[in-house]
Amino acid sequence: MSEPAARPAPLSTVAAARRVFDLSFGEMLWSRRTIFMALVVGGPVLLAIIFRIVEAFGAPALRVNGARVAGGSVFGVMIWMLYIRFIVPVLGLFYGTALMADEVEDKTLTYLFTRPIPRGSVLLGKYLAYLACTSLVVLPSVMLTYFLTVPFAQVAATFRSLVLDLALLGAGLAVYGAVFAFVGARLKRPLVSGLVFAFGWEQLALALPGYLRQFTVAHHLQSLVPHTMPADSTLSVIQGLFRQTSSVSAALTALGLMLVVFLWLAMRTVARREYVLEQ
Question: CA torsion sign, 41 to 143 to 70 to 173?
Fold first, then answer.
C-alpha cells in the first residue's frame, strides 16, 4: 500500500507574508483604488503646474505678508497641508481598511485561510503590498511637485529637506496603514469608523488644549514637519501653528510604538477572528 502524501510543512510568518505580498501586490497596484489614489496625488502636481506657469510669466504665485514666497517654501507648505494632512490619511484609510474587507467581500478569504500559513501573515503580506503600492504612486507625485515648484538653482540647498519629507511621508503611510488595518480587521464597517477617526477625532484633538493630541497620528507627524520645511521668514506665520509639538525623539518613539502595536493587534485580530462570508 502506498503511503499517504505528507502534508506540506506550514510556512513561517515571514515566508508566508512574502508569498501573500507577491500575490497581492500586482492585484493592488492595478485595482480601481489605485486609479483613485492617482487622482488624489495628482492634485498637488496640478497646483505645482499652475504655480510654475504663473512664475514663468514673472508674476509671484504666492505672497505672505506682502513678501514673495520662494518655490522651496511653497513645496514645504504643500507637503504639510496637502500630503501630510490629507493625502496620507486618505490613502491609509482607503487601503488599510480594505486589506481584509476586500477578501471578505470577494469571498476569497477562505482560499487564503486554508493554506498552511499563519493567518496573521495574510494581513502582514497585504500590509507590505499596500506600502509598496502607495509608495510607487506617491513618490512620483512628490518628485514632480518638487521639481515644478523648486528652481533648479535651489535643488542642492533643498535636497536634504526633500529626503526628510519623503521619509516623513513614508512614516505617515506606514503608521496610518497599521492603524486602519486594525480598524478594518476588527470592525464590520471600518470605512465609516476610519473617517470618524481621521477627520473627526484627530482634527478635534488637535484643536483642543491638553494631552489628547498625544493620542493622534497627526500630532506626531506634525511635530516633525517644521524640521523638514525650509527656513524662510515668510513662513513664520504658518510655522507658528506648530508651537504645540513634541520633540523629534518623542514623536519618532510615539510613531514607532503606534506602528508596532496596531500592526500586531491587526495580525492578532485576523488570527483569532471568525469571519462569516455572506452568501
Answer: positive
- If you search the block for the grid coordinates 493592488, which residue do you land on? 28
Q: What residue spans define the domains of the chain? A: 13-272
- Amino acid (one-letter) located at 136: L
The letter for the amino acid at 212 is L
Q: Which pTM does this prediction carry?
A: 0.86
Quote the CA–CA distance of 48 and 69 in Å, as a whole number: 14
Strand partners, 67: 64
pLDDT at 211: 80
| CA–CA gap between residue 213 and residue 231 (Å, rounded) | 25
Q: Give the number of other Cβ atoms within 10 Å of residue 54's Cβ.
A: 13
Report the candidate in 160, 175, 180 with the shortest Cα–Cα distance to residue 219. 175
pLDDT digits (tens, 9 = 90+) for 195-242: 998 888 888 888 887 788 888 998 899 888 765 555 554 444 455 554
d(CA 203, CA 219): 10
Per residue in 38-57, pLDDT (tens digit) is 888 999 999 899 888 887 77
Q: Crossing angle of helices 88-96/217-224, nearest 10°?
A: 140
- C-alpha cell read off for 229: 520645511
- Mark out the alpha helices in the chain (DSSP H runs): 13-29, 32-56, 71-78, 88-96, 98-105, 109-113, 119-149, 155-186, 190-196, 202-207, 217-224, 236-239, 248-272
Residue 268 — pLDDT band, cuts 50, 70, 90? very high
